[in-house]
Design goal:
The protein is an all-alpha fold and about 475 residues long. The chain folds into two domains: about 325 residues, no CATH class; about 80 residues, no CATH class. It has 25 helices and no strands. It is globular. The relative contact order is 0.10.
């Protein structure tokens, strides 16, 4: 990638090179691959048995798309900007999204919960109070929820983990409700709302790149990312909702407006919990300003406390999605598997029951994340590091050590990578589609091949590249 010290190449106003052949072909290939995804998506309809769905074709398409994307970036990020270049970048991303918005969701079903939660919220019922299983069994639920279930057209019957109450934060519930108010139980409506947040994210990325004197060609990192387009606009995952508030928070913090930045991040937490990990680096400059720091902390406590009142009122038992997720969720994890092994050996050596290893591993993860955030926030080595890079290092670490490394969780990194690109953290775009091999191997009774082989193929190359980049940074006067 281009050296950031090359001011001419990183000036958004520098326009000299016409649209080159590699960028033109890469965009056309990506459009073709997503047209193919749209074409095969009906073969993933829920009524079709899993064994009969073209999972290997899906994985092949996404892996090829990831390779084309990385090739396009390697070329584009070293090319001066032209107007035709920018228009092509935007156009390709829009076409990719349109194909996915009108496609059948592929091997994902979280959107059923979103559509149901929106209906429950609009009905005036606390969405955290009743699980889908309670409603379907008419187990002490209000009559209006039973009526909603019959009106949902099979939505509630297809919700995964039906015995667990919803996990999605309160502001996300408001967005679900908006979708229901516009057009009840309509997936296309939901995807269009996601697209609106996506365009806001793109606009903020324009602003961030201009402020950092980086070329607009870096927008390709976000706008052309095939994993993001598939996970958000085909699968309908909500993760894009938090992006504008995270970016807005970082933009404000970069302008020394920490209180407003904190407010933006808090709204992001109300949509998805992960922006909470960024609060320490946002508030760090206020340590020398106790009154402002107290105001920032007060904002966090009051707003989040108020937002999560409905969750507290519903009870935090084992049926709560937040409790269930925190205690037992585990999928597609790599480092966490190693921590489980360490936990087992440690507990055995200390004479404790080894079935506690999962809880102990989660404690280790929480401890590692806490120590890493403290290190990034307070270490002299990172004192002068750009806020976007600090945020990227934190969120990347959280993702890489998490017990759940779903492909859509990876999208959290992409807005940050636009401003602070790193090849090691772009590589998962090529490798994470292998996650979907689970749906090919599991019906064959070979889930062990997925957990013991495929998962490591997904993540070991990423860790190797991270270590190589870290080693190179050690000889530099500037970290990373």
């Amino acid at each position: 990638m281009t050296n950031p010290e090359d001011k001419q190449a990183f000036n958004p106003e520098y326009r000299s090179s016409p649209l080159n052949v590699i960028t033109l072909l890469s965009g056309a290939i990506l459009i073709g691959l997503f047209a193919l995804l749209w074409f095969i998506s009906p073969e993933f309809s829920l009524e079709i048995p899993l064994m009969e769905r073209p999972v290997l074709v899906l994985v092949s398409i996404l892996v090829i798309a990831g390779a084309v994307y990385l090739l396009a970036l390697r070329n584009a990020l070293n090319t001066p900007l032209s107007q035709s270049y920018l228009l092509w970048i935007i156009a390709v991303g829009i076409v990719m999204r349109v194909f996915m918005i009108v496609s059948v969701p592929i091997l994902e079903d979280d959107y059923f919960r979103y559509l149901w939660d929106g209906a429950v919220t609009v009905s005036g019922t606390n969405p955290y109070s009743y699980s889908p299983e309670n409603v379907l069994g008419n187990n002490g639920v209000p009559e209006k929820l039973t009526e909603l279930a019959s009106e949902s057209g099979g939505i509630i019957e297809n919700i995964n983990n039906p015995g667990v109450r919803t996990i999605y934060p309160p502001i996300a519930q408001a967005v679900f409700a908006l979708s229901y108010l516009i057009d009840p139980f309509n997936l296309i409506t939901w995807k269009i709302i996601l697209l609106a947040f996506d365009f806001i994210t793109l606009t903020l990325l324009f602003y961030a790149l201009r402020a950092k004197k980086l070329p607009y060609s870096y927008l390709m990192i976000y706008w052309w990312n095939p994993l993001l387009v598939k996970e958000i606009f085909n699968s309908g995952h909500l993760d894009v909702l938090a992006f504008p508030f995270v970016l807005g928070g970082l933009i404000l913090a970069s302008r020394n407006q920490q209180i407003r930045s904190t407010l933006s991040i808090v709204v992001g937490i109300g949509l998805k919990l992960w922006p909470a990990f960024l609060l320490p680096v946002i508030l760090r400059p206020l340590l020398s300003q106790p009154r402002k720091l107290a105001a920032g902390v007060l904002i966090i406590v009051i707003i989040l406390g108020g937002l999560f009142v409905p969750l507290y009122m519903s009870g935090l038992d084992q049926s709560s999605g937040f409790i269930a997720y925190g205690e037992s969720w585990q999928n597609n994890d790599s480092i966490f598997r190693g921590l489980i092994l360490i936990s087992e050996v440690t507990l055995d050596a200390l004479g404790y029951k080894t079935f506690h290893k999962y809880a102990f591993a989660r404690v280790l993860v929480a401890s590692l994340i806490t120590l890493w955030i403290i290190f990034i926030t307070f270490s002299n080595r990172y004192r002068d590091v750009d806020l976007y890079k600090k945020s990227l290092f934190i969120i990347a670490f959280v993702f890489l050590v998490s017990p759940t490394q779903f492909p859509w969780y990876y999208t959290w990194l992409l807005p940050l990578l636009v401003v602070a690109p790193r090849f090691s953290l772009l590589l998962p775009t090529l490798l994470l589609p292998l996650y979907y091999l689970r749906y090919y191997l599991e019906p064959m009774g070979r889930i062990d091949v997925f957990t013991d082989v495929v998962v490591w193929i997904e993540f070991v190359p990423v860790w190797i590249l991270i270590l190589i980049e870290w080693r190179k940074s050690r000889v530099s006067t500037h970290p990373y």
